Amino acid sequence: MAGDIGRALAARIRMERTSREWSMDELAKRAGVSRAMISKIERQECSPTATVLGRLSGAFALSMSVLLAHAEGDAKRLVRAQEQQVWVDPDTGYVRRAVSPVAGAPLQLVEVELPPGSRVPFQASAYRFLHQQIWVLAGRLTFSEGEVVHELRRGDCLQLGAPAECVFENRSESAECRYLVAVVVR
């Protein structure tokens, strides 16, 4: 894992696990992630993918935004654009920017850049405690919510239904897709 965010994220995942008095095996079972992968993440030998991070945050009953923000340990009410936390999925190149200040607010805004041809799945457990809306800023997003597939274009806004297996997909071969996710913890 490269950089300060990688070290901080590894430490935060370890802290979340140990504060619950969970072994790596217990976290692996709850998150559906192998014990070996959790060990590699905690030892900073690899960076979690968006899918793995979603599974881990779901097991902790935290949104990805909160897990990443807690990794930085910052509680400012104003976050300048150049200070916003950016995380890149090492598997897909998916870029996630935490737009909102953490400061304990229940609303979180997250901007995502999904490269052409990218597909990012998340388990329902990552969403069971969240209310979300997706607003497409540029390009096209194919969003699968269980068996329901939504084709979203620039300006479209979708309110997610009950927690289901989800897939964010940019089927374009050349155009990036950018969207904003508004997240409220229930």
Structure description:
By secondary structure, the chain is an alpha+beta fold. It has five helices and ten strands, in the order αααααββββββββββ. The protein has two domains: 3-70, Orthogonal Bundle (434 Repressor (Amino-terminal Domain)); 78-185, Sandwich (Jelly Rolls), CATH 2.60.120. 28% of the residues lie in helices and 31% in strands. The strands form two sheets. It has a six-stranded antiparallel β-sheet, covered by helices on one side. The longest helix is centred in the first third of the chain and has 17 residues, at 3-19. The protein is globular.
In a nutshell, what does this entry contain?
This protein is α+β, with helices and mostly antiparallel strands and 186 residues long. 28% of the residues lie in helices and 31% in strands.
